[in-house]
Amino acid sequence: MPDHLIAFLVLGAAAGILSGMFGIGGGVVIVPALVVLFGFGLKEGLGTSLAALVWPVGIFAVVAYYRAGQLQLRAATLIALGLVGGNVLGAQLALGLPGDTLQRIYGLFLFFMGWRFVEPRKLLTQRRNGAPPAADPVPVEVAWYILLVVGVGAGIASGLFGIGGGLVIVPALVVLLRYDQKRAVGTSLVAQLPPVGIGGVLSYYDAGELALTASLVIALGLLAGSLAGARIALGLPSATVKRLYGVFLLVISLLGLSYRLVLIP
């Protein structure tokens, strides 16, 4: 384990950059890396990833988005409440059930959302006609329970796949609730800041599927990387961040569907 500490730190930093840019937890990078590069068992990789994400590793990124006025505290609070319960359920499912079908469904979901974010036909039309980019969307006001349901769904995905939940939260906020991409990312990071995944972490710990030292070192890398990612995203136009996020989702979904490395319960 000590020989891998620097590598764990680098892994955490790389996942943190993606977290700060796209509002994800980083587990979508951490889990396959632990399994493929470090020889972790699948469930141990899931538990270790979830344990790294339970710390407030996105705090510096959240501060950056807050200063830029790109987060919504009410929505983040309700989503965080839903994350708590959903996370435990997702972890129990991962520990007790095979998940090939769920993996494929989740991969298809990511592919569909990635396509929606990239919007290739609209992009080609704009370039051919020289049309200006679309105006920023106007957020839709929704009932509190809808945001709670978003949190529960994200929590189940978090516990099941060892991710932070942002891969569900950000698409839901952008596509369904018409949030600006940067505001959705900031809100997602705030929702994941409290230790909402603690129930899932305890489930993996009780099952002996958690490498504590590795999770702590990865968390340190996440802390620094998320700030760098936030600064990159805040310096880019929202439309550019949205399309980069779409490309990221497409790559992750194709890897998961083709190699069963990324979205493996």
Question: Please, could you describe this protein's structure?
Answer:
This protein has helices at 5-22, 27-36, 42-53, 59-67, 73-96, 100-118, 120-129, 144-161, 166-176, 181-191, 198-206, 212-234, 238-259. It contains 13 helices and no strands. By secondary structure, it is mainly alpha-helical. The radius of gyration is 17 Å and the shape is globular.
> Uncertain segments of ≥5 residues (pLDDT<50)?
261-265
Classify the secondary structure makeup into a structural class. Answer: mainly alpha
- Number of discrete helical segments: 13
Element string (H = helix, E = strand): HHHHHHHHHHHHH
How far apart, in Å, are the first and last alpha carbons?
Answer: 24 Å
Name the average pLDDT.
Answer: 81
The best one-word shape is: globular
Number of strands: 0
Biggest beta sheet attributes: none
Helix content: over 70%
